[in-house]
Amino acid sequence: MVKVDLSGAIGFLDGEGPDYGAAGVAHRALAEGTWAGAEFTGWRQLPRRVQGEELKKILAAAERIRDTSEVLVVVGIGGSYLGARAGIELIQPKDGPEIIFAGTGLSADDLNDKLERLGDRDFSINVVSKSGTTLEPAAAFRIWKGVLEKKYGAGAKKRIYATTDAHKGVLKGIADAEGYETFVVPDDVGGRFSVLSAVGLLPLAAAGCDVRTLVGTAAESMYALDQRGPENPAWQYAATRNALYAHGKTIEILACYEPSFRYMAEWWKQLYGESEGKNGVGIYPASVEYNADLHSMGQYIQDGPRTLMETVVSFERPRRDFEMPFAMGDPDGLNYLAGRGLSDISRVAMEAVKAAHIAGGVPNIGVSVPLRDEAGFAELVCFFEMACAISGYMLGVNPFDQPGVEAYKKNMFRMLGKPGT
């Protein structure tokens, strides 16, 4: 279960404390579906819904991909790929095909680099799009599909897996016409909340992650996070960050001391930025990678404008530790660390940073899970999703829409000359 440490934040609230009453009202509205966006709260039941036949289908497809392909190309953008990439990068499975993520932009150089990386290896495609009309992944799918068809001819269609709407849309029409195996993007789940559906689970399973454990842990976590009261870590996080926001802390930095957390932070930025940033309000989500960014962004965090709050994610123990070696003659002066585990040294560094930042005026919220594995990933996903929904309602916004995203699309399609724009 996720643990939240508020000891580094409470002192910045002038004795008021987090507003757990408001968190409770928001949670009740979420559970009862009485506020805006209720039609997109199916993510709360996803771990239970996906168990059974759907999970069997996902695992069977993943096994076929693993048997026939050295590479899986996942085509998608935003919530259609970030959750899967976050999990794969965090868990670091060892025995699956390489996963290449495509369709996240329109860079010709990036596309050609990925095609060169693929080389002549056997591959399959998982295209993920609710509608099939978002330009970046649609263009990428056309290109990668062409490469696949050139390599395999009529057999290419057996290597394409489409995750899309159950009944309608351009991609659904193509998939039905071509005979691709299809998986469903649930109607009641927005893209940024969809990682625990086939959107995220198929790439995760193909990469070699234990999705049975992942889904089982997620089901337990969603149940635990639905409990009402100040002991709920989602309440603690949502209420505290909103209280800090009211005290002028308008930017939240998500930090972690594990380099593999990088895309988890990217997923978190979409989750909170797209959910909360509307109607002229919202906490700006940013991220850093410690220790590396302590030697670049550290100066700004320590001494820059005091509009920052910091949330630090940690794992209570490493998968494997490494003992600092002893060196004869102590030429580098590091023998005072000899015999200590690197994880223990890192923990001390983390405590030192926390103390320095708090003294410098940056509130610190700690979030921890036991281990960097499938269970830890599932717990973090459920925790951040639940806290995001509660936090968004506390801010007074609909956390499940994203009207501002369409503005650039309208301009882009018009300027490219798309018919009807």
Describe the structure.
With 421 residues, the protein is α/β, with parallel strands linked by helices. The protein has 15 helices and 10 strands. The chain has a 5-stranded mixed β-sheet, with helices on both faces. Strands 3-2-4-5-6 form a 5-stranded parallel β-sheet, with helices on both faces. Helix 1 crosses helix 14 and helix 3 crosses helix 8 (198-207). The termini are far apart.
Mean pLDDT: 97
Largest sheet: 5 strands, mixed
Report the uncertain regions: none
Overall structural class, as computed from helix and strand content, comes to alpha/beta
Strand order of the largest sheet: 1-10-9-7-8
Order of helical and strand elements: EHHHEHEHEHEHEHHHEHEHEHEHH
**What's the N-to-C terminus distance?**
49 Å
Summed up, the helix count is: 15
Which radius of gyration do the C-alpha atoms yield? Answer: 23 Å
Name the beta content range. 5-15%
So what's the overall shape? globular
Seen as an oligomer or otherwise, the chain set is single chain
* Helix fraction by DSSP (H/I, runs of at least 4): 40-55%
Number of strands: 10
